[in-house]
Amino acid sequence: MMAVREAFLIFSSSIWKDNHKLLIDSDSSNVVKWTIHPDMAPWRMRKVVLQLERLKEELEGWEIRHVRREANQRSDALAKQGAYLQYDILRIFSHGFAVEWRKLRGR
């Protein structure tokens, strides 16, 4: 849920939020279910769910879908690699160029 919230946060502050739809693939069927039906989320996720609901209102469109981990091996490998980084990283690819932003975690 935190990764989905982070995706919504990043996208809602981007230049694309008014002209594009946010598409999220998740290998967690629970996260997909709770994002679509927030009333089904467990109480301990309530704070994240409420934040996510507020962020959803800011976007023109969004979609989340369940993708099996086995069918999405590249994304799974990147997620595991990212879990071990000591800094947050955001890469945006546009017109053949990559822009990278890094921030030390915990700062």
From TrEMBL:
This is RNase H type-1 domain-containing protein. Keywords: Coiled coil. It comes from Theobroma cacao. It comes from the Eukaryota. The keyword Acetylation does not apply. The keyword Coiled coil applies. Residues 20-81 form the RNase H type-1 domain. It holds the Pfam family RVT_3. Residues 45-72 form a coiled coil. GO terms for molecular function: nucleic acid binding; RNA-DNA hybrid ribonuclease activity.
